[in-house]
Amino acid sequence: MQDTAIIRPSLPQLESTARWLALLMLAIGLHIFEASLPSLGPWFKPGLANLVTLLALALMGPRAALSLAIGRVIVGSFFIGTLFTPTFVMSMAGALTAATVMIAAWRWIPGISLVGISLLGAVAHMLAQFMSVEYLFIRQPALFYALPPLLLLSCISGWINGALAGYIAGRLGHEKKQ
Amino acid sequence: MFTAATMCAMPSLTPYSPPRQSMRHALKGTWTDRLLLLASVICIVGAWYLVQAAVAAGPVVADIYHADTLLATYPLPQRGAVPIHFQAKGELGISEIVIDAQGARIVSSPCATQRCVLSGAHKHAGDMVACVPNRILVALRGRGETAFDAVVE
Hints:
The structure holds 2 protein chains of 2 kinds. Helices cover 76% and strands 0% of the residues of chain A. Chain A has one domain: Arp2/3 complex 21 kDa subunit ARPC3. Chain A is mostly helical. The longest helix of chain A has 31 residues, at 147-177. Chain A has helices at residues 11-36, 48-60, 62-80, 86-108, 114-136, 147-177. In chain A, α2 packs antiparallel against α3 and α3 (62-80) packs antiparallel against α4 (86-108). Chain B is an alpha+beta fold. Chain B has 4 helices and 8 strands. In chain B, strands 2-1-7-6-8 form a 5-stranded mixed sheet, with no helix packed on it. A 3-stranded antiparallel sheet of chain B has the order 3-4-5. Chain B is elongated, with a radius of gyration of 24 Å. The chains are: A mainly alpha, B alpha+beta. At the A-B interface, α1, α2, α4, α5 and α6 of A face α1, α2, α3, β7 and β8 of B.
């Protein structure tokens, strides 16, 4: 008789997966919520969904953050009906660039906190969106007329989101230790 | 069994453990964060100055583009003048643009969410209205009243 051993994931693996899925659900919800907000400017959003990416980076590491950024754009776009449209391309470009920049900053900039990481992520997100539109859809430098004030807004929102992420990550880490 | 007790006993998966801090303390950031903010703001303000220097020349005009093609350029009409109606053919269909004393606006577009239409009229140099799905851009330049004001889909 042949032994049939069922390979079960370990509890730490299950916990990690469950936590990642919870963050993904939160990010998707915030992605959809942000899409319903009135526009403050071209492609400007408060960056709440990006805050969850930052939390995933702080709590689970770069791979989880990158996969969460990709996952929330795909699933979120599916729910708001923009999957594979130019809006989806812009969202994906922004989310991927922001996640990559935040990971690089987290790894290689000494003394940086989640506030600085979020600041760089927000600026990278806005730049990537404008550049993707300029490169792929509307090839006009006139697009960049509105970019500087939006980058300033991104700095503000990125700073606040980073502080929020630091506060939340600190509390989650504390709860976990207890 | 997967219980709270077993969860607490598990090794930490956290690659980084941020210290628990108040929101007020978190908002301060580190010196590195503040230096990054300062560098970002200096770069952005410099870029803004350069953009304004390039945009603010001559009377306020509206440039209408489809992708990489300039379709038309119209000066903003004075109050009481006849509004200009322009139909820009894009990827999805025709976006109808009206330029009058209130500014330039997209009044109809074949895009799904209609944010470009809902954004209303724009009349300041540096403003823009874009319908990305239809690849239509209306950008204003000139020595007019300058303010940040733009909405796109």
